[in-house]
Amino acid sequence: MIQRAKALLYDAPPQPSIDTARTTAQSHFRTLRCGTPFQPRIDALARTNDWYNWAGYRAPHSLWDEELEYFAIRSQAALFDISPMTKYRVEGPDAEAFLNRVTLRDVTKLKSGRVHYTAWCDDEGFVLDDGTLFRLSPTRFRLCSQERHLPWLLDSAIGFDVTVEEETAAVAGLALQGPTAFAVLHDAGFAGVENLKVFDLADFPHDGDPQGNSQVTISRTGFTGDLGYELFVPSEQALSLWDRLMAAGELRGIRAIGYTALNRARLEAGLIVANSDFVTSEHAIRADRLRMPDEIGLGFMVDLEKGHFNGRRAILDARTKKRLRHVLVGLEIEGSIPAEHAIVYYRKGQEVGLISAAMWSPMAKRNIAIASLARPFGDTMVDDLWVEIYAMRELQYQKLMKRAKVVPRPFIRLDRRTANPPAGF
After folding, report:
1. Is 5 exposed, middle or buried (0-12, 13-18, 19+ CB in 10 A)?
2. Is 124 helix (H, G, I), strand (E, B) or coil?
3. How far apart are CA 28 and CA 46, in angstroms?
4. What range(s) does the Aminomethyltransferase C-terminal domain occupy (predicted)?
5. I need a labelling partner for 302 at 20 to 30 A (CA). Which of 11, 61, 106, 370 fits?
6. Of 234, 269, 304, which residue sits at a domain end?
7. Which residues contact 175 (CB under 8 A, 6 or more apart)?
8. Same domain for 198 and 63?
9. Are 257 and 149 members of one domain?
10. Is residue 235 a contact partner of residue 166, using CB atoms and an 8 Å limit?
11. Are residue 60 and residue 148 in the same domain, yes or no?
């Protein structure tokens, strides 16, 4: 062993200088090193080179024009790579019981071939994350989320006959959203996709394999409030799926998009994002940043009729003793200047909350926002609310106080999202 170590030492190549090593290290940490299975196609379309780090993957803020990418969602068909989304396979005789134990909604009511939006909490009732749960069969599920939770899921699975595995890298995903999304899938040869209702899922043959040995799972879900679908396929089939959709959608206006456009659409739909509109309990440093489901608009998920689940006692106690401290609301703000990250005031003087997402909505023709307010503001007290906006005017910021009112979410409702069968635009 010692002789082998000496040989390696004597045969080692010359080491780089300190300056070279430092430059290499800095370059390494600036580089997002993971690409998704669709990366070759996305890189070929990228014009803006506007990238961000999504869970260690190189993902686009925009690809060609963030404004036009948004309108591609609302008027055509938009293709968005959701492969970096964390995905877990939960399988086994106790899979249903296990997921019923850790998530808020009653999993026994989720039938095979269906999806529901859910969330999960720690023992103190604070939200760990939200996501979608796909029931692929009676004993097999796919749980998708923003954050990674494998150690927590494995610890929670003790005593259950269930296996939990992360399949983020193994399964590639695409979101196909917009009015022509159904027409693209129909033209791509996915026979029977017209039968999918909102939150339905089914498997379809891919690569022309009538035996179904190569399949793509399609669900009628999305994050835009529009007609849309999400497609999941083994990573090795990713590029062929991309090419199949792009070829079929050429005459339907299909365009690849980045996150900025998607984020605008989700805001119009009134949907929330973990660690943007609320801080997950594992990431919160200060106790006043923790949120219960009722404090971020997820109280409808809590099913107190089912058996025990994580956080049940704490959630029930907070409701009974009226200890809920915050409320997440939709706001309509006068004027047209977006109020992102603006402070919300009561009677222009008392600070009562903060806006987490805001935009001028081209669809709603309103200045909209999502804000977290301290109760009773936004709950029982909804009048005389103001936001503080700093607008650039002639190279100088000007403080504007704009009136705001609490309004229901979503900010827009599109009939085509739930139409059955979907229209073939």
Report:
1. exposed
2. coil
3. 22
4. 328-411
5. 370
6. 269
7. 78, 79, 80, 82, 222, 223, 224, 228, 229, 230, 231, 262
8. yes
9. no
10. no
11. no
> Is the preceding peptide bond at 179 cis, omega within 30 degrees of 0?
no
Model confidence, pTM: 0.90
Domain containing 361 equals 287-407
**Nearest to residue 261, comparing CAs of 44, 49, 46, 69?**
69
Question: Residue-wise pLDDT tens for the chain (425 aa)?
Answer: 333 333 333 344 445 555 554 554 455 555 556 899 999 999 999 999 999 999 999 999 999 999 999 999 999 999 999 999 999 999 999 999 999 999 999 999 999 999 999 999 999 999 999 999 999 999 999 999 999 999 999 999 999 999 999 999 999 999 999 999 999 999 999 999 999 999 999 999 998 555 656 899 999 999 999 999 999 999 999 999 999 999 999 999 999 999 999 999 999 999 999 999 999 999 888 988 999 999 999 999 999 999 999 999 999 999 999 999 999 999 999 999 999 999 999 999 999 999 999 999 999 999 999 999 999 999 999 999 999 999 988 889 999 999 999 999 999 999 999 999 999 88
Q: How far apart are CA 207 and CA 234, in angstroms?
A: 12
User: Are the CB atoms for 252 and 176 separated by under 8 Å?
Assistant: no
Q: 225: which 2 tokens?
A: 């409030």
Tokens (6 digits) for 138: 């009676």
Contact 361, 320 (CB under 8 A): no
Minimal CA–CA distance to 119: which of 343, 240, 286, 271?
A: 271
Q: What region does 32 belong to: left with phi over 0, alpha with psi -120 to 50, or beta?
A: beta
Rg over CA atoms, the chain: 24
Tell me the binding residues: 230
Tokens of 188: 């791509």
What is the 3 state secondary structure string of 247-316? HHCHHHCEEECCHHHHHHHHHHCCCCCECCCECCCCCCCCHHHCCCHHHCCCHHHCCCCCCCCCCHHHHH
Going from the C-alpha of 231 to that of each of 169, 174, 190, 219, 241, the distances in angstroms are 15, 5, 11, 7, 9
